[in-house]
Every structure is written in structure tokens, then in C-alpha cells.
Amino acid sequence: MRDEAKDQRVRPGWSRLALGALSGVLAGFTALAAAELVAAAVRPQSSPVIAVGGASIDATPAAVKDWAIRHFGTNDKLVLQLGILGALTVLAVALGVLAVRFRRVGAAGVLLFGAVGVAAAVSRPDSSSFTDALPSAAGGLAGALLLYVLVGRLTVVRRAASSASGSATDEAGDAPRESADWDRRGFVVAAVSAAAASAAVGAIGRSLQSARGQDAIASRAEVVLPSPGSPAQPVPRRAGLRAPGISSFITPNADFYRVDTALVVPKVDANSWRLRIHGKGVRRPRTYSFDDLLRRELIERDITLTCVSNEVGGPYVGNARWIGVRLVDLLAECGIKPPSRGGPADQLVSRSVDGMTIGSPVEDVMDGRDAMLALGMNGEPLPFDHGFPVRMVVPGLYGFVSACKWIEDIELTTFDSYDPYWVKRGWARRAPIKTASRIDTPKPFARPKAGTVMVAGVAWAQHRGIDKVEVRVDDGPWQEAELAAEDTRDTWRQWSLAWRATKGGHTLTVRATDRTGAVQTDQRTRTIPDGASGWHSVVVTVG
């Protein structure tokens, strides 16, 4: 009897599931490429990876952030972005496999993740327009469409010959097995074309985003820092020791620590930059341009900065020569008075172009210390990583309550009425830098030879100054180290001790005393909420 053909959909086998996973990855790649291209026309921060990454940082508990900085250092942002891309890849694979069986559901899943990107982009603190939603929306649509097309090429409608009885099952009664009847050529052509087009689109997007920052780069290149009206005194000749392994007295810009939440370093054109000063108790609100600041009398000071995330013995401290405008002069021009003189505002909230908010005590920035809006660092305009065109520098305060980079707004308010970014996440409202010291050499687990070993490092107590440093070997008595010459009380101070090392394992411990007479505490505390404390020690084995 003649066989009759019937249409039957084939149950997907492993080969089609694998190709579905590949389709999901290609769809994800296409979505990101399309989003990058659109973000180049909107702004780089609206890219879904950056927007979702920023939202992730904001939602991460302070203890987890601290852990990330401790373990990954300044690479924490790269690790986060790689983690996001890894998670997106896994999700793309899952959606591709799902789409093989449920084509529309898989495509809808891609649209859903586009919607997540939209929500993250428009909810960022620095978002000021609905256009921030466009990159994620365009990426989600492009990815969903491609997944739908690719999986369509994998759909198999097979002609199964029925038996004389009209049954379409085999002798064992199983469902039809998959054959090679799906559109191989169409799938390969579509997949290769999509991969090539996405790579090109992504490259164009990256190139356009890079070009957007050229005006800022050109504006920085044009900056000529005037000679300061109040120059820094020459660094004392003996302020820097020659002990091998000790930190240099002035930290080069390339080596200066960077800890912030910006996944994309803002590139701000100095020609269009403006700073607004306003708020409670501001009798004369003002707006300043970069040229306005350059025309003022500038001060030049050596100041050591410390990050509150710096663990005992950690690397997030550096000393630089800063040039800028006295902050107190600008505030006084605006009619601002500190609380001690009857001013109604006790908190100065500085805002960055990326939406970061930092709160500083008004009393501290107006008490006569060299608080400044810095324009230059170590003889050159601020690097972009460190806040070009303008950043705040306040001696004696941890960076999270003073060192606003890429600053564009200063608002006077009160601590009771507003909590800035870090305070909302469990950090202290006020945070003077704690007296601390660090052993730079020998390094932990070093194996020096018996005899005279130079133990050396740095100590800091900004705005108070270091009066004494002591070193202890094992449980022995404290020995006073030799202090290098002091530059100013706002800079760290180097120290050294010639140790007569004997064979065996030893623990070296250091502590400092500041100029108020306060001895560095041995009580270990975490960095949260107002900075770590405790004595730094290293273990060495003398051979």
C-alpha cells in the first residue's frame, strides 16, 4: 500500500540544543553590540553593562564592597564587569536552549533582560533623560529578533511516512527521531552574518564612545596651570629616606590609588564644566567656570590622602603635591558661615558628574586647614582617573567624606536633613583620619640574612602630624625609630630602624604617636564605618 506523508515536529536532540545555546550567545552578543552603538549616541554611562554594574554597586552591602576592594584592589570594577558578562553569557545560553522548544518565550526572555537594563539606566543618579533607556531597549529588541530568526532555522518539520495502518510511529512505538532536515545552510549563514555584523557594530560603538571623550582630552591638554600665589615649601632634603623598598615620599600619579564607584571614568570638557554653589545659608549663590578658578589666586600644598577602605598596612594611601583654589574663599564669597559663627548649615554636600554625593563637615572645611578645589596634581592638570577638571581635597578627612572627584555641585545643608551616598550604606557621617603606620620593608614572609636589617615604612596622622614611631620585635620592648624630616603635618612621615636580626622566625610590629600625644591603638577594627585601626605587623624568617 502507498505511504502517506504527514507533518511532524521533531523532538530536539543534543545537537539542536547546542546550536540553540550558540544562538542565545550570539543574540546576547548582538544585544550588547547594538546597545554600545546607541550608547555612543546617548552617553557611555547608559550602556546596559555600565548601568546594571552601577546599580549592582549601589545595591551591594558595604561589607561586600569592602571585601571586593580588599581582594581585588583597583581591579574591582573590572572583576564586576567580567562577572556581569559571565552571568549574561550563562543566561543567554539558557534562553537559547529554551527557545529551541519555546521560540517566543526565549525571545521574550531577551526582551525582559533589555527591560532590566532600561530600569537600571533610568534609575541611575546621573540620569537626566529618558534617552538613557534607548541603548538597553535597542539591544533587547535586536537580541530578541536575532534569537527568534536563528531558532527558526533550527525548527524541523519532517515528512514521516505512515504505515498501511496510518500510524506514524516506529515499530517500538517511539516518537519520531530527529533527522538532518533542519535548515543547516540558513542557520550557518544567519549565525555567521550576525556574528560579523555584531562585531562591526560593537567596534563602531566603542570607537564612537572613545571619540566622545576627545573634547575633554583636548581641553586637558590645553590647560596651563598658573604659578601658585601661595606655593608649597620645598620638600625637606631628609623627608625621603633611601631605604630600599620604602614608599617614595611623593606618590607618582600613575601609582596613586584609585577607589571610587565609577565603572566608566568621566571625561569632562573643562571648557563646558561649571560648579554651582547653593543651599542653606548661601546668601549669594554662584556658578564658577574652570577659567574662573584658574584666574584666582592658587595655593600649592603637599597633602596625603587616605581611603577609608584601607586595611591596616594597606596600600590605599598616597602623598601628592596639589594645586588649587582655597575652598573657604569660594564659600565666603557666597556668604557662607560655619556653624561656629552662626551658619545654619553644618554639612557641605559635593556632587560629582556621575551622581556620587559626599558629605563634609562645614566646620572642618572652613577651620583654616588647606581644604581646596584641586586643579592640578604633581605639577600637571588632574588626571582623568583622579577627577579632572576639578576635585575636592580636604586634609585630615577620609576620602569618602571629602574627596569628591569630577565635582560639579556644592550644596549647603545639614546632617539631619540629608544622607549622602556612603552614609546611606552604613558608613559614618564624620570620619577624621586615624593615626596609622605601616611597615614597607621587609615585606611579609621575607627571608633576610642575619645581621643589620633596615626596617622602614611610613606613618600618617593628617592635620595632627606624627611625633614618634616605635617598632617591636616579637614580644620585646618598643624601640623608637628614626623619623625622616617632616614636610607638613598634612603629609605622611617616613621612618626607619636598623634592626640587628638574629636567625629564626620573627614578628615585627609598628605603632605611631601623633602630635596630640595619642598613641595608635592596638585594637583591631574593620574599615566600616569610619576606618580600620590596629598595629601593622609582618612575619619574617632570618637565615
Account of the protein in words:
The protein has helices at 14-42, 48-59, 62-72, 76-101, 103-122, 134-154, 184-212, 214-222, 290-294, 327-333, 362-365; strands spanning 5-9, 157-161, 274-279, 286-289, 299-306, 317-326, 347-352, 357-361, 372-377, 380-381, 391-393, 407-413, 436-441, 451-460, 466-473, 478-480, 482-483, 493-501, 504-514, 536-542. By secondary structure, it is of the alpha+beta class. A five-stranded mixed sheet has the order 4-3-12-7-8. A hairpin with a 4-residue loop joins strand 7 and strand 8 (357-361). The longest helix is centred in the N-terminal third of the chain and has 29 residues, at 14-42. Mean pLDDT is 90; it is low at 1-10, 159-173 and 175-180.
Core attributes:
543 residues, 5-stranded mixed sheet, alpha+beta, 32% helix, 5-stranded antiparallel sheet, disordered N terminus
Strand order of the largest sheet: 4-3-12-7-8
Q: Rg from C-alpha positions?
A: 31 Å
How far apart are the first and last residues' alpha carbons, in Å? Answer: 95 Å
Overall outline: globular
**Strand fraction:** 15-25%
Helical percentage: 25-40%
Count every helix, treating DSSP H or I runs of 4 or more residues as helices: 11
The class by helix and strand makeup works out as alpha+beta
What is the tally of beta strands? 20
Q: Could you list the spans in which at least 5 consecutive residues all have pLDDT below 50?
A: 1-10, 159-173, 175-180
Provide the residue-averaged pLDDT: 90
Largest sheet at a glance? Answer: 5 strands, mixed
